[in-house]
From TrEMBL:
NCBIfam families: Mtu_fam_mce. PANTHER family: INTERMEMBRANE PHOSPHOLIPID TRANSPORT SYSTEM BINDING PROTEIN MLAD-RELATED, LIPOPROTEIN LPRN. It comes from the Bacteria. InterPro entries: Mce (IPR005693), Mce/MlaD (IPR003399), MlaD_Phospholipid_Transporter (IPR052336). GO terms for cellular component: extracellular region. This is Putative mammalian cell entry. It comes from Mycobacterium xenopi 4042. Residues 2-56 form the Mce/MlaD domain.
Length: 198
């Protein structure tokens, strides 16, 4: 369906990577927008299931979806089924939802009682923190991208780094063995590098 008008039919359906993969065919003269969103729903309470192909909510249709094209999973959704809607309504009507909401509000109010100024201060600090993060967003993204480039460089030099790290323990052993002999030299160096007092 496009704009609540039947324009084609559903063909073979398969499970692919734990998701439904559905082939559809539409009439030749029908234009399916390239930015179409696929939604599965029911025409009425007792109606049959259908597949809607419409532009994203609040956006105009752009271009034309070519034959054989795929609408990705992130552009598909499912309307709640009749069973899901009635089940949710049953929970609310039978007190499973409203009573719990009232209890949550009461307990939350009791927990905050007498602490309003502390909570207000916390909210103000969180607001400042989030605002600072928002202002630094470009710097944060640039830092993450730089870390990504650095990790890519490290990954490209993995063998050289492994060889270098394998040579560090023997080099440390040599330095530890030479420490007693080199200590007087370091002391002399430190005293000669220190400027005389005025």
């Amino acid at each position: 369906m496009i704009d609540d008008v039947v324009v084609g039919s559903v063909g073979p359906m398969r499970v692919k990577d734990w998701h439904a993969d559905v082939e559809i065919s539409v009439k030749r003269d029908v234009v399916v927008p390239a930015n179409a969103v696929a939604s599965v729903g029911q025409t009425s309470l007792l109606g049959s299931m259908h597949l809607e192909l419409n532009p994203p909510l609040g956006q105009p249709g752009i271009g034309r979806l070519q034959p054989g094209a795929t609408i990705p999973l992130n552009r598909s959704s499912t309307y709640p089924s009749t069973e899901q809607t009635l089940s949710s309504l049953s929970i609310v009507v039978n007190g499973g939802g409203l009573g719990q909401i009232g209890e949550i509000v009461h307990n939350f109010s009791a927990a905050l009682s007498g602490r309003e100024s502390a909570v207000r201060d916390l909210i103000n600090r969180l607001d400042t923190f989030v605002g600072t993060l928002d202002q630094q967003r470009d710097n944060i993204v640039a830092s993450i991208q730089a870390l990504n480039r650095l990790s890519t460089t490290f990954a490209g030099q993995r063998d050289a780094l492994t060889r270098a790290l394998r040579k560090v323990p023997p080099a440390l052993d040599v330095l530890i063995k030479e420490r007693p002999d080199s200590r007087p030299h370091w002391i002399n160096f430190a005293s000669s590098a220190t400027p005389p007092p005025d």
